[in-house]
Amino acid sequence: MVINTNVSAQSSARLLSQSSTQLSKSLARLSSGSKITSPADDSAGLAVSMKLNAQMSRIDAASNNVGNAISFNQTQDGYLQKVNDALNRMSELAVLSQDVTKSTSDLALYNQEFQTLGKYITDVGTKDFNGVSLFNGTGLNVTTDDNAKTFAMTGVNLGTGTSYATVVGDSIDTTANATTALSDVKAAINQLAKDRASIGSNIESLTMYSDQLGTLKNNLSAANSRITDVDVAQESTQYAKYNILVQTGTAMLAQANALPQSALKLLQ
After folding, report:
1. pTM score
2. Residue 18 domain boundaries
3. 159 and 98 fall within a common domain
4. What is the pLDDT of residues 166-216, one digit of tens each?
5. Per the domain annotation, does 198 fall within a domain?
6. Quick one: 211 and 153 in the same domain?
């Protein structure tokens, strides 16, 4: 029996320290909800989780871009719906102006409405979305994934050199002019049909990209969860285990520290 070196106490203290460390880790995991509370817990898992989180952040950014692009196209189509109404009325006025029973004053009134509708179409051509022109004919490239790949949206042009500009420059103050205007309005309506079809195609494609991004993020979130999220049921069991070990280790260390006192009896 020795006094200077208490091997039992040293062993008990080492085991108590290990149990206390594990108990602290278990508490940290339960309180944070994460299995990785420090790089030492799972260095490789932490590296993978960091990359997954960065990728999901980029996916969120791409989703925002796609969502804004969809809104851009929807705004375009909203305006073009009213342009469609204007062109339909203009075609009606062009036919009415070819009525041989109409007087010059009647034609002037028809032409006044025709010109007003033309000005409306011209005004629509100047509209923008957050400072970006809606109808200058420029195609826009939209970021559709986390690697910055893009989708090229078809542009719509209501400006100079288009069938829209041609019909805006027409008049229906005479029967001859009305005949020409009707032909131009019909051409503009055909162009409008093509433009709205292009916008519809843009929206459909962008919606698919948006759905794809949402599915990808869900899958990445699930993968990241398996790496980092703590299983509360399992971890609470570990917590109870180490809590008991700390309590028993503390009691046994006290007993081990008391053993050298028995040497005093040999000296009595």
Report:
1. 0.81
2. 7-31+232-267
3. yes
4. 999 999 999 999 999 999 999 999 999 999 999 999 999 999 999 999 999
5. yes
6. yes
